[in-house]
Write a structure and sequence with these properties.
363 residues; 2 domains; Jelly Rolls; 21 strands; alpha+beta; Aminopeptidase; 8-stranded antiparallel sheet; elongated
């Protein structure tokens, strides 16, 4: 018997874990799965409610805490004494009857992509407060029922996942396209979601003058930061940027505070960037003062597509055509696949959101 079992038989814990298979089916990381060690802890704290044909977790808050969409976007405040219900599994009617009887102010967490549980919340007259999106790309819808409260008013841009904001002169795009064959070798991207090393980039503007350096230091882990602690990283043009005055002109049209500028390439015949979020960069977003991610396709084909999930868990498949300018909030789950026989190359620009760009996003 291990300490983490809290006295519960291992076979029993495994059997309970199997009962949460419908909940675990929506997880995208092993850390989100409700497994035997989490179950033992929840049983020990008397938070886990096991019925004959259903089960859920009910936790009473000991302190007041904030509920966030991401790490720095607060959508509500959970008060001491509030009840949080989650980890729903099993018979929907049994769950509904149980939750309906809870007398305290109650927060309900359900998977945004679980239509049955969304319907349960609505039938019980819960109020949708917003979404919580994990770093692994999982989406919870958060509901509240109880004493009337005011929730945070979130900037409309925070709800936006993707949007076409304008078109540019196709001649500018073609001029950039004609120079692509002169580019040096692209650098394989360090993302964990870069399937089969099919995604790569070159910097026109970055944190050194080397075009092959595509890293943003703030995004890197502690080990990387320790290894590079003596190096000085400052935003600057790379040696490649001077060959692309068309790119500079385009960037100037987006705003006067340009950060990284990169060419990003996705290989042919199934090159894929798997579903994920980019929440390691605290600057990202579409609100005023945040760092927006802008895409301009330079070379593409009709079988190169993005899939982006909105805050309600609904996927949207998008093909970005040459000459179209798109905003993508990378804090939301997104995936890119190139099934075509031609490489997909986008010009990707990070720019501080000013009032003009913000109006384009929320208008």
């Amino acid at each position: 018997m291990k300490d983490w079992q809290h006295g519960f038989d291992l076979d029993y814990l495994k059997s309970v874990e199997q009962q949460f298979s419908d909940y675990n089916a929506y997880t995208l990381s092993p850390f989100a799965k409700f497994k035997k060690n989490n179950i033992a802890e929840s049983l020990h704290k008397k938070n886990l409610i096991l019925l004959d044909d259903a089960r859920y977790e009910k936790i009473t808050s000991k302190v007041t805490s904030k509920i966030t969409m991401y790490s720095n976007v607060v959508i509500a405040e959970k008060k001491k004494g509030d009840v949080t219900v989650g980890k729903l599994s099993g018979n929907i009617n049994s769950l509904k009857n149980e939750i309906e009887k809870i007398p305290q102010d109650t927060w309900l967490y359900v998977w945004a992509e679980n239509e049955q549980h969304i319907k349960l919340a609505e039938e019980l007259s819960f109020i949708r407060v917003g979404a919580k999106i994990t770093t692994y790309g999982e989406i919870f819808t958060i509901y509240y029922k109880g004493t009337p409260r005011k929730f945070n008013v979130v900037d409309a841009a925070e709800e936006l996942s993707i949007k076409k904001i304008k078109d540019v002169d196709i001649n500018i795009v073609e001029s950039i396209h004609d120079k692509l064959k002169t580019l040096p070798e692209f650098t394989n991207h360090y993302s964990n979601y870069n399937k089969d090393n099919s995604w790569s980039a070159l910097s026109l503007r970055g944190y050194t003058d080397d075009p092959s350096f595509i890293t943003k230091p703030i995004e890197m882990n502690k080990k990387w930061k320790e290894e590079h602690r003596k190096e000085n990283f400052e935003m600057q043009d790379t040696s490649l940027y001077e060959y692309f005055p068309e790119v500079k002109s385009f960037c100037n049209s987006l705003g006067n505070k340009i950060h990284r500028v990169r060419f990003m390439k996705l290989k042919t015949n199934g090159g894929e960037l798997e579903r994920h979020t980019d929440q390691v960069d605290p600057d990202s977003g579409g609100s005023l003062g945040k760092l927006a991610r802008i895409h301009l396709p330079i070379k593409t084909n009709l079988e190169a597509n993005f899939t982006v999930w909105n805050t309600k868990g609904v996927p949207q498949k998008i093909h970005m055509s040459k000459g179209e300018v798109w905003f993508l909030d990378t804090r939301k789950p997104h995936q890119a696949i190139n099934k075509g026989s031609e490489e997909r190359i986008h010009l990707v620009v990070d720019v501080i959101v000013d009032r003009s760009l913000h109006e384009s996003l929320i208008g």
